[in-house]
Amino acid sequence: MTKLLEWLFGVSLVGAVWALVTFDLLDLSLPKTYREVAWPMPLYLLVSFGCYSLATVGYRVATFNDCEEAAKELQGQIKEAKEDLRKKGLKM
Amino acid sequence: MASRKTSPPNRDSGDKYSVLLPTYNERENLPLIVWLLVKYFGESGYNYEVIVIDDGSPDGTLEVAQQLQKIYGEDKILLRPRAKKLGLGTAYIHGMKHATGNFVIIMDADLSHHPKFIPEFIEKQKEGNYDLVSGTRYQGNGGVYGWDLRRKLISRGANFLTQVLLRPGASDLTGSFRLYKKKVLESLVERCVSKGYVFQMEMIVRARQLNYTVGEVPISFVDRVYGESKLGGNEIVSFVKGLLTLFATT
User: Fold this and answer.
1) Chain B closest-CA separation from residue A32 CA (Å)
2) CB neighbours (10 Å) of residue B178?
3) Residue whose C-alpha is closest to residue A74's, from B133, B93, B35
4) What is the pTM of this model?
5) Contact at CB, A61 and B156, closer than 8 angstroms
6) Which structural domains are found in chain B, ordered by start?
7) pLDDT in tens, B26-79
């Protein structure tokens, strides 16, 4: 199953449950409060996922390591390498 | 094999590591990356070879590579040039044909990938007998140097979106600093059709599909010292296209 199909399957499953409760399709005569909670649920889920995404990406951008040390080390090694290579007879 | 007492550790493990270096206009960087490779392989004692696949660089990369071959020996530096610039996937296929190692390491020749991590890759691979070990900028002590906020945001955003859509089981999908068992790389390259950033992503997504095991090693990515690094609108559009293609087909 491709990822696309997995997603479609998941979304339609959630959608079906949501429709069942919200529109009482099976005549289960659920209490009214169930329906009132259920109908705006997709919007809540979407908004919370959006917030989660923004927070996660924001946090990861803020904590992205800046490898100053690695850059310095590399610059030093480049100098060392150039000298050594010249000694070994490399013409740049 | 007879071992001398002076030989460094790891020499007699029977494993050999072939480093594939696809180059295009890397005259400045190639000697430096080769020097670093020789240094770190020499210190750790693993058996290795470096295969330079130059795609007809007009700046004379090949000529520099020939000089390096004279300095370090034809058994260590192998030249497998091609006439013109062709895709990355075909460069790996081309290089692998001549690789004598049972492991293949692929990395960029522009010094953004530091050879000091290779011994760590090898230890990681041995630790879990992983089919492939991927460098990751997004975990542990991994990171980047030389990226502004915009670049970091795009990178993290793209990575998050990919994680959500594809759940690939690896943290760095677009990185190209990896160690593969040779057979694994051969079977993956055959299957991968994408270009650019997406190629690396497809490699790891397909690896998961085929139930290959993936190990990860944090790396520091120092963006191009010489030459320019690009991330424009075109790259982003082709990344999104590639991502959606993988989403629909894998």
Assistant:
1) 35
2) 25
3) B35
4) 0.88
5) yes
6) 15-247 (3.90.550.10)
7) 999 999 999 999 999 999 999 999 999 999 999 999 999 999 999 999 999 999
Residues A9 and A53 in one domain: no
CB–CB contact B31 A81 (8 Å) = yes
Residue B76 CB coordination number (10 Å): 16
Residues A24 and A49 in one domain: no
How far apart (Å, rounded) are the C-alpha atoms in residues A83 and A79?
Answer: 6
What's the rounded Cα separation, in Å, for the pair B49 and B44? 14
Residues A49 and A72 in one domain: yes
Alpha-carbon gap, residue A12 to A1, rounded angstroms: 15
Answer yes or no: do A65 and B143 touch at CB < 8 A: yes
> What is the ipTM metric for this complex?
0.88
Range of the domain at A13: 1-29
A15 in the same domain as A37? no
How many domains, chain A? Answer: 2
